[in-house]
Design brief:
alpha+beta; Arc Repressor Mutant, subunit A; 2 domains; binds FE2/S2 (inorganic) cluster
């Protein structure tokens, strides 16, 4: 159970987690009234800012909404959209839909896995990339496809995977 000293306790915990700022969390919470029905929008916003739901932030949210921590964690784990571990800053999505599959999508995925050294659902150790697969991105005419953050790349080949990733690394 959380220490009743609340915010100060949370601050120490948050500082221990790289990139998580107590100040930023308070800023997010200040735009809410502390009502129970605000739980999901708060979780969504916290995840948007931090990239995942850090445990200390979940405890702080529970205090803010005067809800048991188990309720807050329960809601967070119920929805697939919420993540509890940090994920890579740049999201690489490879399409696994039918159109992409018949045009060699599996080969593209293998190539991306090889080049990034991670499997779908994983992040690179430096948290630069995370790899996901999607059912269809709605660009079947360009199959096989992949998306780097919000940029769609079509008619992918193994060679084009190298080009796209190199081009992206060069842009950063
Ligand atoms: S199946 Fe890949 S874009 Fe539609």
């Amino acid at each position: 159970m959380a220490n009743p000293s609340g915010a100060q306790d949370t601050q120490v915990l948050l500082q221990q987690q790289e990139g998580i700022s107590e100040e930023r969390l308070n800023e997010i919470l200040s735009s809410y009234q502390g009502k129970e029905e605000e739980l999901i929008p708060i979780l969504q916003q916290v995840q948007q800012v931090f990239g995942y739901l850090p445990e200390p932030a979940m405890k702080r949210i529970a205090k803010f909404l005067k809800l048991p921590e188990s309720t807050v964690f329960g809601v967070g784990t119920f929805y697939a959209q919420f993540k509890f571990v940090p994920s890579g800053r740049n999201i690489i999505r490879v399409c696994r839909g039918t159109a992409c599959h018949v045009r060699g999508g599996a080969r593209i995925l293998r190539e991306v896995e090889k080049q990034l050294g991670i499997k779908p659902g994983e992040s690179s150790p430096d948290l630069e990339y995370c790899l996901e697969t999607v059912a269809c991105i709605g660009a079947c005419a360009l199959a096989p496809t992949m998306v780097v953050n919000n940029e769609t790349h079509g008619q992918m080949t193994a060679r084009k995977v190298t080009e796209v990733l190199e081009q992206f690394r060069g842009k950063k």
